[in-house]
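User: Can you predict the 3D structure of MBL fold metallo-hydrolase? Sequence below.
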Amino acid sequence: MTILAIIAIIIVAGVLVVKFYPPLGGRASHGSLQRINQSANRANGIFVNQIPTVMNLNPLTTAKVIFEFIKGNPKGKPSTPLQSQLLDADRLQTDELPSVTWFGHSAILLRLDGKTIFIDPMLGRTPSPFPIFGGKRYSDRLPIEIDQLPSIDAILISHDHYDHLDYGSIMKLKTKAKRFIVPLGVAAHLTRWGVDPSIITEHDWWDELEFEGLKLASAPARHFSGRSVGDRNKTLWCSWVIQGRQAKIFYSGDSGYGPHFKEIGNKYGPFDLTLMECGQYDERWAAIHMLPEETVQAHMDVGGKVMIPVHWGAFTLALHDWYDPVERAVKASIMRNTAIATPGIGEVVRIGSPAYPASTWWK
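Assistant: Sure. Here are the predicted structure tokens for MBL fold metallo-hydrolase:
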């Protein structure tokens, strides 16, 4: 009876956490569900990729992966904390030249046509719903603290995984952002966290919109979604096209390699700069996270002039050496004769500059 009581308590506690713990997100409103159900990118009640994408490992492979994670990789994270270049808030707000600033992983601050766009601003210490668990950020501090950031014209989200949509970050950013632009279904999380629904817009693949003179398009990616029990692929994932007078940018979001990159390139390319996923990969889950050589090919497929590899440099979410993504991407770029930039965390990169950052700072 004691054992049964303990099991019952655990089950009830789990149900209560799922229902009432805010970081796990929310459920779509009636209006959002109507749009979700009308999407052509759904089958059997969930969103699907354009091509077959296997995400589940067999039991033996799963056991091996778990063992490898427990064992760990001595080079899986830096031996000392990474140093961020510090940003000046006043300069961020007044700078009229187009630029991007990488905060580590996939968090990118974009200045374009005098507007400030924050892409996937995961600025927390741990990509987890429970901060006491999970690997810590490699750097001791951000390039600029959230409360020091100037007003943000728009926040773009690619999907609802914890390393891209962070509860703590959104709670601090929601009073600074004028607009949230997200894939279908993701608004539910934001509204649960107190973001005004009137400043959120949700978008399906190939949706195009204009925002204060900028032209944006939600484009396909090859990935998945979910942040709680039973909600896998209930929300959409995407990449983003961002076009202004000064430059045209492509952000891949999280994605395995696929034909959608050429499709995007044919429709919207070429791009002055691409921000391409490059990290947290493994041959065993390459269908949802590109290998670095595929990242370079995807950059070429969309017609990118210069590529910045992202989705690395902040957290350990895979088994490779922490610097392996950028070194493999640089090598592949040299072999393919395409330009790559390797800015440090917090380094301001001028879009269209005759010389892009090329240091091997991670060494």
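The first strand starts at residue 42 and ends at 43. The domain at 26-350 is CATH 3.60.15.10 (Metallo-beta-lactamase; Chain A).
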